[in-house]
Amino acid sequence: MHLASPQDSHALGIRLAALAQPGDVIALSGPLGAGKTSIARGLLAALGLEGEAPSPSFAIVQPYDPPEVRFPVLHVDLYRIEDPAEAEELGLDDARTDSLLVVEWPERLGEAYWADALWLALEVAPDGARALTARVPAAWRDRWLQI
Predict the structure, then answer these.
(1) Does the keyword tRNA processing apply (predicted)?
(2) Which fold has domain 2-144?
C-alpha cells in the first residue's frame, strides 16, 4: 500500500478503527518519522478521542477508556524498551483480553510475541511517501479486504 502523505496515514487509521475490536493487536513497525503515530492518531480519533493523542514514547503505555473512546484501547510505544523482560511489567498480555492494543516498535519484543497481530510495516520512500506492507493473521483476513 502506498501512503503519499501524513493525511493518508491518518486516513488509514480511521479505516482500521472501523474494523478493529477489543482483543486485537495492531503492530506498527518502521523507522522514526515513518507515520506510526499518525496511523494511531487516526484510529483513536475515529474511536471518539477528541483532540490529538499524545505520543506514548515516555509513558510507554497510554490507556484510553470509554466514554473517551468507543472501547478500551492501549496505545503502546516500546521504543525505550531495551530488554523484552521489561515488558512483563506493562501487563500487555492481560490487557489483550478486553482492549485493542496499538503497538509502536513491536519488534522490541520480537515478532513471535505478536504472532496474531495485524503487523503493518512502514518504509520511507525516496520521494517521502510511505510504503506499507501488511502481515495479516487469520483473525484479520476478511476485515483486511475492506481496507
Answers:
(1) yes
(2) Rossmann fold (3.40.50)
Q: How far apart are CA 23 and CA 101, in angstroms?
A: 8
Decide: residue 58, CB within 10 A, 0-12 exposed, 13-18 middle, 19+ buried: exposed
Cβ contact 113:35 at 8 Å: no
For 38-92, the pLDDT digits (tens) are 999 999 999 999 988 888 888 899 999 999 999 999 999 999 888 888 888 888 8
Length of the chain (residues): 147
pLDDT tens-place string over residues 24-43: 999 999 999 899 999 999 99
pLDDT of residue 108: 92
Pick from 102, 120, 138: which is nearest to 21 by CA?
Answer: 102
